[in-house]
Amino acid sequence: MEFEPVIGLEVHVQLNTRSKIFCGCSTTFKAEPNTQTCPVCLGLPGVLPVLNEEALRKAIMAGLALDATVAGYSKFDRKNYFYPDLPKAYQISQYDKPICSGGFIEVTTSAGTKKIGITRLHLEEDAGKSIHSDEAGNRVSYLNFNRTGVPLAEIVSEPDIRSADEAYEYLQNLKTIMKYLDVSDCNMEEGSLRCDVNISLREKGVEKFGEKVEVKNLNSFKAVKTAIEYEIRRQADILEDGGRIVQETRLWDADRGLSFSMRSKEEAHDYRYFPDPDLPPIKPDPDYIARIRESIPELPEPRKERFVSEYGLSPYDAGVLTSARPLAEYFESTVKHGAIAKKASNWIQSELLARIDNPEHIGSFSVTPAMLAGLLGLIENNTISGKIAKSVFEEMIASGAEAQSIVRDKGLTQVTDTAAIESIIDRVIADNPESVADFKNGKERALKFLMGQAMKESRGKANPQIVNELLLKKLQ
User: Fold this and answer.
1) Cα–Cα distance measured from residue 119 to residue 8, given in angstroms and rounded to the nearest whole number
2) Nearest-CA neighbor of 24 among 2, 52, 43, 5?
3) Tell me, what's the pLDDT at 132?
4) Using an 8 Å Cβ cutoff, are 124 and 98 in contact?
5) Helices 464-475 and 418-431, interaxial angle, to 10°?
6) Is the pLDDT of residue 299 over 90?
7) pLDDT band at 416 (very low <50, low <70, confident <90, very high)
8) 49 — alpha (psi -120 to 50), left (phi > 0) or beta?
9) I need a surface site. Which of 228, 241, 311, 413 has the fewest CB within 10 A?
10) Where are the domains of the chain?
11) How does 68-84 read in b/e, with b if 16+ C-beta sit within 10 Å?
């Protein structure tokens, strides 16, 4: 039997507001446990939640960027279930009237380009965190309620994904868009971006979906991809052996590379949803939505297309430069300061990115776009060679000095005087008769050797193009 995977993703994006969604408690990460709580987020009797307008604004912005429709009427509901780290024994979420619906994310894999539909984007509060001790003789669980009430935007995809590669690309693109918007830092290690996967198999050519399984505890994009591949194999083996798939929730064990059953999968009726009586419905004014739409920055895909058309970059180079908003802005600022776009692109990708841990942090890099443009200008007007430019760049990073002053103070200006270069070449030819003979016998490597000797003799200062031209002329 040949099976087709049907995959849907539920992604929780933590919105980077300074306070929680229904109270004024801080959302700062790594604070002392249980120091960022109040009667509202702990659900004590008699308290009233109040919606954080900034969380609403960021959720709407995220929806608009995904080409979703913002609802003219949405509401909050109580999702009832008991976990030790859910102090109210219910979660304030949105059930049948989410803030945004529809939209898509475009993905490109080896199978081609396609649109993955989005079912909905809704607002909800996060739960707390359970920490379990595995110490012998001290098997206890601790509860930290600091995260309780942190605002989340849950983005649910349509079951349009057909491979682990498509799921991986979907998540990468979603993360890039959220970071471009500055609605979330999307730090998976800190829980700012979390993903659950729903997977089912069906025979190829059959329209009806198979029984779906949800996989949780996926803390990296690599884990998502690996878990999907594992679950496809597991379900296929069961079906081929004549068994049936049980609808359930499974946990992913990254160390062992397998999933295991956690519980039977809940249905919506299990949560006993009902409208939250303490929160009024949301009816966003069209002008309010329009102002949010106008504040959306140029998104990665349109920016990539513009970099190709406006700067003549390849789609690959444009994709690298637009992978992070600060990186794209650094490149454009370098070009605005006079650098040739292709040269700036090459230098940023080959030299600059090799020296920073994260393109998101390029704004704090010691070499500013104006300084980089100055360095590239010195290469372009033949003041220094590309080789010397690399050592100058290292000095710029270490000292924060301008390229021009480093070149001047260290006497690194490129030699373009043909008489001086001819003198160097004459010495090299005289000192290396065997290599000269090899060149005349058709050995091309000999030319590279002689070229290297000439550059070494000039301490890297001679203009390589002039050296090459004069050396060939004399050898011929």
Assistant:
1) 10
2) 52
3) 86
4) no
5) 50
6) yes
7) low
8) beta
9) 241
10) 3-288, 298-409, 418-475
11) bebbeebbbbbbeeeee
- Mean pLDDT score of the chain: 92
Q: Is residue 326 packed enough to be buried (19+ CB in 10 Å), middle (13-18) or exposed (0-12)?
A: middle
Angle (CA) 473-376-424 rounded to 5° is 30
Angle at 26 between CA 25 and CA 29, to 5 degrees: 140
Q: Identify whether the C-beta of residue 324 lies closer than 8 Å to the C-beta of residue 172.
A: no
> What is 290-354 written as a DSSP string?
HHHHHTPPPPHHHHHHHHHHHH---HHHHHHHTSSHHHHHHHHHHHHTT--HHHHHHHIIIIIGG
Q: Using CA atoms in the order 390, 394, 399, 403, what is the torsion angle rounded to 10 degrees? A: 10
Q: How far is CA 225 from CA 7, 166, 220, in A?
A: 11, 9, 9
Q: Which of 363, 296, 294 is nearest to 328 (CA)?
A: 363
Q: pLDDT band at 454, cuts 50/70/90?
A: confident
CA-to-CA distance for 444 and 59, rounded, in angstroms? 63
Confidence of residue 453 (pLDDT cuts 50, 70, 90): confident
Using alpha carbons, select from 5, 310, 271 the residue that is nearest to residue 124.
Answer: 271
Looking at residue 258, its amino acid is: L
Residue with tokens 């109270």: 23
Does the structure show a pLDDT above 80 at 460? no
- Per-position b or e across 86-108, b if 16+ CB within 10 A of its CB: bbbebbbbbbebbbbbbbbbebe
Q: What's the Cα-to-Cα distance from 254 to each of 10, 225, 251, 259, rounded to whole Å?
A: 19, 11, 10, 8
Report the predicted TM-score, pTM, of the whole model to 2 decimal places. 0.86
Fold of 418-475: Arc Repressor Mutant, subunit A (1.10.10)
Distant-in-sequence, close-in-space partners of 180: CB < 8 Å, separation ≥ 6: 65, 297, 299, 300, 325
pLDDT digits (tens, 9 = 90+) for 358-380: 999 999 999 999 999 999 999 99
For strand 248-253 and strand 213-218, is the pairing parallel, antiparallel, or unpaired? parallel
Element (H, E) at 97: none
Q: Distance between CA 217 and CA 233 in Å, rounded?
A: 19
Could you tell me if 201 and 5 are in contact, meaning their C-beta atoms sit under 8 angstroms apart? yes
pLDDT mean over 225-254:
94
